[in-house]
Amino acid sequence: METLPAFMDQYYELVEIDLSYSSSIIQFLQKLKYLYLSKCPRLKQIPDLSEVPNLEILHGTEATRSIVLRDQDFYQEQDIMRWRDLTFSDICQLKLLILDGVEAPILSYIPSTLRVLRWRCCPMETLPFMDQGYELVEINLSDSSSIVQVWHGKKFLEKLKYLYLKCLYRLKQIPDLSEAPNLEILDVQCCDELNDFPSYLTRHKSLVKLILYRCSSLETLASKLEMNSLKELDLGFCTSMRKPPEFGECMKHLSVLYLWGTAIEELPTTVSCLVGLKDLRLQHCQRLTCLPDSIQVLKSLTFFNLFYCPNVLQSLHSLSSLTSLDTLILSGCFVTSQESWSYNLGNLVSLRDLELSHNNFVRVPINIHELPRLRHLNLDYCPSLKVLPELPSSIRVLNARDSASLDAGHSNVISKLCCGFAASAIHDSDGLLQMWVAQNEGEEIPLWFVHQEEGNGVSVTLPHNETMALALCFQLCPRRSSRNYVVNLPVICNGKEFITKHLTVLRETKNSQHFILCLSSDYFVDQFCQDYRFELVFPNNVEMKVHSSGVRWVCKQDIQDLKKSGTETSKRKATFDLNMNMNITPPSSPCRKKLLMVTPSSVSPLEEEEEE
């Protein structure tokens, strides 16, 4: 059957069509091509006709409020719906029209009563907006590679709030939105040919979110933005953009600014107007030469990404005033190996996550131990790194994988960190410390882990003295170099899964590494036994094995010894500082600056005597 029979009386009384309760009806309608509902004045909602793939012509009624003709295979990109015509009554009251995946130009007219229009993969070059005024609240034409111009001329769109024009690859200009005063979201990301941004939009009073991500032909946005409602601005990978706009004083509500992957050389000093900014992303801005001092006033900033911005190192001092900063990414910034780098970021009292991977420094040039809330430190893929820095007891995740130059001395840092964790874990709800540390060829598990066994597994007896934590170390060796995995690594205790939470991301490499866990005593409250055996379990698809295992109970005496050694170190440092001050040349001397430069690798005379 290609068309429904014309039972006029029944059509007149028809109020609802529901195809969801009977698969036999859907099968019966597989060959239906024409559906005329213009004689159904009481029918307000046309059913979802996605299961009627051969339907070509649909005539709606003046009472119709909703039409959904979504292609069921839209996301699989298989069949194309065979629509040829969609016709409405002249007095149609249509509110919702969804045509996602309908790849035929079936619209000849868009009713002015429409509230929502969604037509992803629209095949038309321009949509038939014939009227001057519309009730539209949302328009979504994303992924429509045919659209060149959304509509012609000016349209009165007083109620329009959401306009999604994502991935319109032939779109060269944004449609006229001068009469859309209530627009809140404008998404034109991945519009490769878009090369102009209307000046009137730079002063829009209602726009909250503006996304221009990957508009690679866009060279400039405006000389100045004065958008007092804007909260999110995404200019990421606008690769032709060399100069970002200035920011007006009214832009205090902007909280997200993405400029990553652009060709900008500097940030405007008016970035200081963005007092509400929380998220700033500048990664891959390789031409960025410096950060303005005005960035210091961004007291609300919590996330700052400078990944692979190697030319901003001389400006890192300006970060010391960002006291609300939670996450700082400096990966790929230190591209050359220099021991003289030194940055004091101790004022970053809120910092919890510090990313320093893919750097080429010999020593970490930041005073890590002065960051009181630091939880996560990433030193992965630092090929020149020789020693691990002194770490605060707040650390809960340390990654130093594929940092192949680390010397054996890092075992001392690990033992101190485990003892510091044991002392602080009693005040911390997260009673787990995990570390991934690169292992040099021939290096074994540190001797600090006093109980050691070959292979996967180690046994230990609970001591009689007061224990604070348990430290485990597994020496992992790759069976072969293979791809990366994201896995959970369950730790087995006495044959049962002991730790069920997600531990970390395992990146398989050709190098061996140590996987270290430190657990607070809370993990053993319900374990009513004296003897324990711990093992690490890998999924079958992970090409790694445990070469050896080690364990140590961290007791009160270990913590007291750590505090004692810390006091002695502080005394030696104070003596060293005193000696330095006594030898400093008066300010008039031209060599004063040279004597004041103390690198992390400097050794005091007292320390040299002790070593001898």
Describe the structure.
There is one protein chain. Among the domains are: 1-109; 560-611, no CATH class. The model is unreliable at 72-81 and 573-612 (pLDDT under 50). α3 crosses α4. The relative contact order is 0.05. It has a 20-stranded mixed β-sheet. It is globular and about 90 Å long. The protein has six helices and 29 strands. By secondary structure, the chain is α/β, with parallel strands linked by helices. A hairpin with a 2-residue loop joins β25 (491-493) and β26. Residues 228-407 form the Disease resistance protein RPS4B/Roq1-like leucine-rich repeats domain. Residues 442-558 form the C-JID domain. Keywords: Leucine-rich repeat, Plant defense, Repeat. InterPro entries: C-JID, LRR_dom_sf, RPS4B/Roq1-like_LRR.
Pick out its properties.
612 residues; alpha/beta; 4-stranded antiparallel β-sheet; 6 helices
**Low-pLDDT ranges:** 72-81, 573-612
Mean pLDDT, to the nearest integer, reads: 82
By helix and strand content, what is the structural category?
Answer: alpha/beta
Major sheet:
20 strands, mixed
User: How far is the first residue's CA from the last residue's CA?
Assistant: 100 Å
Enumerate how many helices there are, as a single number. 6
- What is the approximate shape? globular
The percentage helix is 10-25%
Using only CA atoms, what is the Rg?
33 Å
Structure summary, number of beta strands: 29
In terms of DSSP E residues, the strand content is 15-25%
